[in-house]
Amino acid sequence: MRTLIIEDEHELAEAMADGLAAEGFVADVAHEGPDGLWRALNEPYDVILLDIMLPGLSGYDVLKRLRAAKVWTPVLMLTAKDGEYDEADALDLGADDYLSKPFSYVVLVAHLRALLRRAAPARPAVLTADDLALDPARRRCRRGNHDIDLTAREFTLLEYLLRHPDEVLSKTDLLTHVWDEHFDGDTNIVEVYIGYLRRKIDAPFDRLTIETVRGAGYRLRSGAG
């Protein structure tokens, strides 16, 4: 899932980006309020981590402008330790959740996954399509009674497809959310990984879960296949 981290402490921001990458998130970083606001307004993100104390524009101002522009991307506000007024103000301004510093990556990832579920209430914690099940929290994939081993990139790609069932997703969309905005390699990498997934989740079970939509992209079928 594509995440925007708006945090002026460079070491903390980079550490969060690295930690989230290990959990299958694609993380972009902005260190100033105006840059973060521009990215949040102009780039597609699944969730935003937003610090309160930022140069240029405070996190409060960034959040107010996002909501005024009708950008409803889930926002996790990063607040000072014991900053109960910060937390109350963040929620009043339209934040979806808050996390007090310092925090563990286990707690951070749990909050982010909860926000993603909340943003799509019809989709449960375990993502399914027919008898295919993916549990992001436990990093587990199963088809029926069979466990399926996936690499980190395969897991992230399948998770994104399952979060958008029956939608046609272009190569550009998949590159943006599963790789990152700076990817400048061969776009055929998407086809390669779709092929890897098909060989693991479909071929052994005589199924067709991931369809190619000629000239448009790929679609994950939610029904029996």
CATH superfamily of the largest domain: Response regulator
In terms of DSSP E residues, the strand content is: 15-25%
Please give the radius of gyration in angstroms. 18 Å
Quickly count the helices: 8
Per CATH, which architecture of the largest domain?
Answer: 3-Layer(aba) Sandwich
Q: Could you tell me how far the N terminus lies from the C terminus, measured between alpha carbons in angstroms? A: 26 Å
The secondary-structure element order is EHEHEHEHEHEEEEHEHHEE
Average pLDDT reading:
86
Helix content: 40-55%
CATH fold group of the largest domain: Rossmann fold
Overall geometry comes to elongated
Number of strands: 12
Largest sheet at a glance? 5 strands, parallel
Low-confidence stretches: none
The spatial strand order of the largest sheet comes to 2-1-3-4-5
